[in-house]
Amino acid sequence: MAEDRSIPGSTPARISLVAIPDAVISTLSGIYDVLNSFEMLGAAGATAAGPSPFRIEIVGEAAGPLALASGIPIPVQRSVDSVDATDIVIVPSILLPPQGWAHGRYPRLVDWLRTMHRRGALLCSACSGLFLLGETGLFDGREATVHYGYARQLAAAHPAIAIDPRRVLVVAGAREELVTSGASMTWHDLVLYLIARCAGAALAQQVARFFALQWHQDGLAPYIVFDGRVDHGDAEIASAQLWLRTHFSIANPVEEMMRRSTLAERTFKRRFSVAAGVAPIAYVQRLRIEDAKRRLERTEDSVDEISWRVGYEDAAFFRRLFKRTTGLTPGAYRKRFRIPDFARPPSGA
Fold first, then answer.
1. Of the four, 13, 138, 222, 326, which is 20 to 30 A from 54 by CA?
2. Do 205 and 267 belong together in one domain?
3. How far apart are the first and last CA of the chain?
4. How far apart are CA 136 and CA 131, in angstroms?
């Protein structure tokens, strides 16, 4: 990455936060509040006194009130037609309808995004905001991230973008001007990154402390729930997947699954890999790890006991596989995701 990642010749940096009817209000308002909070933080003694490093505006196709995906209206402060230049554009999370993203709904916005990029702006997406930014074509052939729940839909809508939903933040482009953040609350990482890039790491740390924002330094793999693909249309493989749901913990499940199939071993493995997207053994491992995650979250069973219950007699192998899959040890996963004692209902309730 380039050594100097600051926004040149612009103090404060101009931020255009894009509002469209599909936008999620919590992400949009959260980004706005944090990046617009520096005077308040200075008054509270949370940061050094001084001018705000940003000037942020909510922009859209037209100025005025706009109802977002939840139905709650927000004020669009400026039409993009009146914004000739900006330093940073952020498209917040959007809520996709069941039928998925519809191309071509916002041609004026897409043209404006291309123009702002050509004039030097960073283009940033929080979570699923990449669906809109992807229409510019500027992310084609680039690495990016998106909410893991939308990864398949994003791949279908924008197949030229190299998506990895396990990553928290991806910075791409010749000028490091294409920035994407992953699932939901990784907008925290996005705003902290922008503060650090434009105003320095010390200020980003101060803001993180004041708002209790966290960098997701372990990545998003611990949060991803494996959901084996079943919309592939291969009835033979779908039947095998259905059987695996309740038999993944038995000894040698892949061999038993193939024995129950009408296909030859080589044919079965090939068709399974094509249909499910992963090899049979990897599919079994992911099902076992998902079950182990639920047990770590909801029970007091030891790691060795959980290892045995999901199908691994060798607890050391299970620990290595769990860490490789989730990025966390079983103990660290349990500490992060189990319900804290203060949130548990009283005993006997």
1. 138
2. no
3. 55
4. 10
Please answer whether residues 69 and 94 qualify as being in contact, where contact means their C-beta atoms are separated by less than 8 angstroms.
Answer: yes
In this structure, are 184 and 299 located in the same domain?
no
253 lies in which domain range? Answer: 235-337
Q: What is the pTM of this model?
A: 0.86
From the list 165, 170, 93, 167, the residue with the least C-alpha distance to 128 is 93
pLDDT in tens, 129-140: 999 999 999 999
DSSP, residue by residue, 261-322: SSS-HHHHHHHHHHHHSS-HHHHHHHHHHHHHHHHHHH----HHHHHHHHT-S-HHHHHHHH
Do residues 163 and 155 make contact, with C-beta atoms less than 8 angstroms apart? yes
Residues 219 and 275 occupy one common structural domain: no
Residue 109 in any domain: the answer is: yes
| Phi, psi at 46, each rounded to 5° | -80, -25
What is the predicted pLDDT for the residue at 346?
Answer: 75
As given in the structure block, the two tokens for residue 245 are 């749901």
Provide φ and ψ at 108, rounded to 5°.
-65, -40
> What's the pLDDT score for residue 42?
73
Q: What is the pLDDT of residue 4?
A: 40
85-138 pLDDT, tens digit each: 999 999 999 999 888 899 999 999 999 999 999 999 999 999 999 999 999 999
How far apart CA 250 and CA 315 sit, in angstroms, is 16
The reply to whether 33 and 135 lie within a common domain is yes
Q: How far apart are CA 313 and CA 304, in angstroms?
A: 8
- Could you tell me if 142 and 177 lie in one domain? yes
Number of domains within the chain: 2
Model confidence at 238: pLDDT above 50:
yes
Last residue of a domain, one of 165, 199, 223: 223
Q: Are residues 18 and 53 in the same domain?
A: yes
Q: Looking at the domain assignment, is residue 163 inside a domain?
A: yes
Residue 208: is its pLDDT beyond 60? yes
